[in-house]
TrEMBL record:
SUPFAM superfamilies: Trypsin-like serine proteases. Residues 1-29 form the signal peptide. SMART domains: Tryp_SPc (SM00020). Residues 52-284 form the Peptidase S1 domain. This is Peptidase.
Length: 414
């Protein structure tokens, strides 16, 4: 077993409150091992305050899943996002050991990942709170990490391929924003199963915090703290929220929670846009394993829901249309070769349209999207030293002894 990371947002298993039901705050999935006495913790690294600080519990968003890792004597909790029926996007530090840490923290350019753990150690649930019932979990078939990418700073993404595809009744996948980069000051929502205080209280329940703001993206972030494949938020996530998503205003996942400073400040996310090709490749592979058609975003279809907005309704201004386009008194929407117009409409390209953006224009006998649907249904870190980065950002993950989840362990062993 690897050694337990100490200090900061990662707490020692021996200091846990005995009344915790499921998860106790401790180390990360790849760093669970012997407990370390409290007196050995490095006081220079601050401790966590809350998970999804200022947020609230939510029974919505079943595609935001809890990831439980079981080890011989310990367990760990992370968060993930279902981006296809059998594909969960999470953080690499949730599925692999961390090596070369600095006093329990991450030193960009030095701290790396080891080999990922076995798929059989991971279980995924869509429930809003962790359960000790085996039927509430889906086993994992495969653990995928970017080949040759082992730096904690910049490479903190992973995919869990589930043993079976989830049905639409269980969870509808969240589309990853693979075709548009984030920009500074965008608003996002953070979700995760993390703790709400230093003692791990509340770990294991899905929480949400709205109205967060992107502070910087890629090269615009401090080079000693984040890489071009990452971005920084303003606050809001802590231990147990590792691997959880940042969701943009259009409902797309734009980031994967990686690490941050003490008191849940300066959260760093892996930038989904930077991993577009890898996500597409692995999702297509997973779809082939399960026998379903890969999602449209893997083929280049725009992820912005405006491309699926209804057409044909009467309008007086662009603001009154979901697609953002009011043309000749009717609502339209943008279009591309891969986001075609409904029957009865023609995609007017920038060369023959009066606007710069191609949009769906009525043909001789148009039909609205609603009409078409009804007919078919009637017949759907510049490398820096620790001294340069006094916060020593640490991955946010909850781990420790399993309480009520011991039943799950026993059933798994049967």
């Amino acid at each position: 077993m690897p050694a337990l990371l100490r200090g900061g947002l990662l707490q020692n298993a021996r200091s846990l409150s005995p009344f915790l039901c499921f998860m106790a705050a401790a180390s990360l999935a790849g760093c669970v091992g012997e407990a370390v006495d409290d007196t050995t913790q490095d006081p220079s690294i601050g401790e966590s305050s809350q998970g999804i600080r200022g947020g609230y519990e939510t029974n919505e968003h079943p595609a935001i899943v809890g990831i439980l890792a079981l080890f011989e004597r310990d367990s760990a909790l992370c968060t993930g996002t279902l981006i296809a029926p059998n594909v969960v996007l999470t953080a690499q530090h949730c599925v692999a050991d961390i090596e070369n840490d600095v006093n329990g923290g991450v030193a960009c350019g030095r701290t790396t990942f080891g080999a990922p753990y076995r798929p059989g150690q991971f279980f995924v649930t869509t429930r809003p709170s962790l359960s000790d019932e085996m039927e509430d979990y889906v086993a994992v078939r495969d653990v995928l990490v970017p080949e040759g990418r082992i730096q904690v700073c910049g490479d903190d993404v992973a995919i869990l391929v589930l043993d079976r595809p989830l049905t639409a009744e269980e969870a509808v996948p969240v589309t990853p924003r693979v075709d548009e980069s984030l920009v500074k000051n965008e608003q996002y929502t953070a979700l995760g199963y993390g703790a709400t205080d230093d003692f791990g209280s509340g770990a294991g329940s899905r929480r949400q915090r709205d109205g967060l703001t992107v502070t910087c993206v890629a090269e615009a972030c401090p080079a000693f703290y984040a890489t071009p494949a990452e971005w920084q938020g303003d606050a809001g996530i802590c231990q147990g929220d590792s691997g959880g998503p940042a969701i943009d205003a259009a409902g797309r996942v734009v980031g994967v929670a990686s690490r941050g400073a003490a008191e849940c400040e300066l959260p760093i996310y892996a930038h989904v846009f930077a991993w577009a090709d890898w996500l597409k490749e692995k999702t297509v592979h997973a779809a082939g394993l399960a026998g379903y058609e890969a999602p449209p975003w893997t083929r280049g279809t725009p992820t912005n829901p405006v491309y699926e907005a209804p057409t044909g309704a009467s309008c007086s201004s662009d603001e009154t249309c979901a697609g953002g386009i009011c043309h000749d008194g009717y609502c339209s929407r943008p279009c591309t070769e891969l986001a075609a117009c409904p029957s009865g409409y023609t995609c007017k390209t920038a060369t023959d349209a009066e606007s710069e953006e191609a949009f769906c224009a009525r043909s001789a006998t148009p039909r609205s999207d609603e009409d078409a649907s009804a007919q078919s249904s009637g017949a759907l870190c510049s490398v820096g030293s620790p001294g340069e980065d006094p916060t020593k950002p640490i991955p946010w993950i909850v781990s420790g002894a399993v309480g009520a989840l011991a039943l799950l362990r026993r059933r798994r062993a049967c």
